[in-house]
């Protein structure tokens, strides 16, 4: 513990509010195991997506907040449910016929369609860990298959067997009549086919952990519930994990609120206290639909990182976790610039303000220092106007705007240039649509041309230039200057919006902008 507890809690930042729950949970001292355990879960039936990262990122933010206000050690587990049966073939993987032949088998027994790992589960686990390692998360990875087969869960599985009726009676009222007839807290692994069976189970000897069941062919088996011979049904599995590992904190999506309630009841039946946590809202794709691993809609982890900094992604995860947000390519530019704005403010803030700053939670208080003379949004517009396809061209404009700026002394800006070029080529350029200026707009452009010609060609003061842009709109008698600014982007750049036009002109250059305005007046940008 290194921080000011009162200031941290007074900040009302949601990670500190969550961490306070754990402080109250252990107000009399640290738990018997010696640390507070945070857990995140991952279902490797599909490739990891940003929602998966979001849960680890947000949980890490809560853990860092707890570390700031408590001396109790912490530990984070990333748990993969890789013993689940493959229910359907994801649409975004190759060799789908290969997976079709393994439907129903545990994911760690399903062949890897990519041909790089021993199983599909192992492949997706590796993808997740590689990404988490890239972000520098401190965590321990747990595989459900390993935990079940190693005996780590045996003690709790035996408890469930002894308390079978109490556990099953928590779940049965939530099921339809037909499902009740086949439901069991235990899912046996068929000795003949290796399939995870959803069949009725009879407890033969609760003290010895022996159950019996029939497979889909009608053959009857007896087995023990330990040693990986069975896995638990979802809601029971969650509670079993909480009990076996003694989990203290786990968050979940809003779609799992009822599951959290049921699993919490079962955790109490098993003799323990459910973990603390909260329910975050789900991410939506471009059409407002829930992101799905199996459908592959929305953004992948790799896609965001191709167009923006990792820190911007972390900021997006921090902001408004209880609000459903679109997670598509058009949110990236704003997230990038907001991250650097918060990071720049951090250096001059007092301790109380820093605890509220999102970058404290992204970096655990150790926020990097940046010097960015140009925003990401401005870079995108510069790429658009200059038709730039390489950093060298961009640096030519930037070094004139910010004297002495180079890739060597502004490496972060150099990195942003690479992102801007890729983002422009893939998302802005294909949608650019220039239009002719309306008569009122044409009059404003003619006024802007005269006003820019009156300025020194080397003028780079964005406020001075913005005054002339305002005045040109007023000269043409725009009642709402927003309509004039909108026309600037649509007519000059073929886009619907952008950063302040004064900043863009200052960066692009008076001479270059005059040439652009002249073409707009003559209608030469269209076609």
Describe this structure in words.
The structure is a single chain. With 527 residues, the protein is mainly α. Among the domains are: 1-150, Rossmann fold, CATH 3.40.50; 301-363, no CATH class; 432-526, Orthogonal Bundle (Arc Repressor Mutant, subunit A). The chain is built from 24 helices and twelve strands. It has helices at residues 5-10, 14-25, 50-69, 96-100, 120-134, 144-150, 154-162, 164-171, 177-180, 234-245, 257-269, 301-307, 310-318, 332-346, 351-356, 358-363, 376-386, 391-401, 411-428, 439-453, 462-475, 481-493, 501-508, 510-522, and strands at 36-42, 74-80, 140-143, 186-188, 202-205, 210-214, 220-224, 230-232, 252-253, 279-280, 283-284, 325-326. The strands form five sheets. The chain has a three-stranded parallel sheet. The chain is elongated, with a radius of gyration of 29 Å.
Quick overview of this protein structure:
One of its GO terms (biological process) is lysyl-tRNA aminoacylation. By secondary structure, the chain is mainly α.
Give keywords:
mainly alpha, Rossmann fold, Arc Repressor Mutant, subunit A, three-stranded parallel β-sheet, three-stranded antiparallel β-sheet
Query: For the CA atoms, what is the radius of gyration?
Result: 29 Å
Shape category: elongated
What is the CATH third-level topology name of one domain? Rossmann fold
CATH superfamily of one domain: HUPs
Q: Please, what is the average pLDDT?
A: 93
**What are the low-pLDDT stretches, counting only 5+ consecutive residues below 50?**
none
Number of helices: 24
Helix/sheet category: mainly alpha
Architecture per CATH nomenclature, i.e. the level-2 architecture of one domain: 3-Layer(aba) Sandwich
Percent of residues in β-strands: 5-15%
Strand arrangement, largest sheet? Answer: 1-2-3
Record field, number of beta strands: 12
CATH class wording of one domain: Alpha Beta
Distance between the termini: 63 Å
Oligomer: single chain
Estimate the helix proportion, in percent: 40-55%
Major pleated sheet: 3 strands, parallel
